Amino acid sequence: MALIQVTGYITDNLAPQTGQSGRPYVRFELLEITGSGKKRWTQYYQVWTWGYEEVDRLMKLGVKKDCKVQITGTLKLVDAFTKASGKTKQLKVALEDCQLLAEPVALLLHKPDKTGTDYPIRDLDGDRDVLPE
């Protein structure tokens, strides 16, 4: 096991559940985007937290689908089973701390406003114009 700190996006709304022992827990998927351009890739983590205080603290943060969060926890590589591919490996994080970095509304992409300037903007041509020093 290793301590990990990840910044990523929550892929589903959080729903507290109760385990067989009656202990509450929350499980969610975290999407981490690493690199840029052609070297960009995504990594998924399955994040878990257990206990009344931990679940309550996470729910009070107001984290939900598409929120950007930074989590700290213990990372484990475990065997998992999927219907599509059968036996596989999965990264699980036992959550120790979570910080909300951005609400989903702040993440919406928009076109920049076209604001005018008080003066005309002229392109400089380095071959014909003297460039400022």
TrEMBL record:
Q: Which domain of life is it from?
A: Bacteria
Q: Which InterPro entries match?
A: NA-bd_OB-fold (IPR012340)
Gene3D superfamilies listed in its UniProt record: Nucleic acid-binding proteins
Protein name as catalogued: Single-stranded DNA-binding protein
Q: From what organism does this protein derive?
A: Enterocloster bolteae
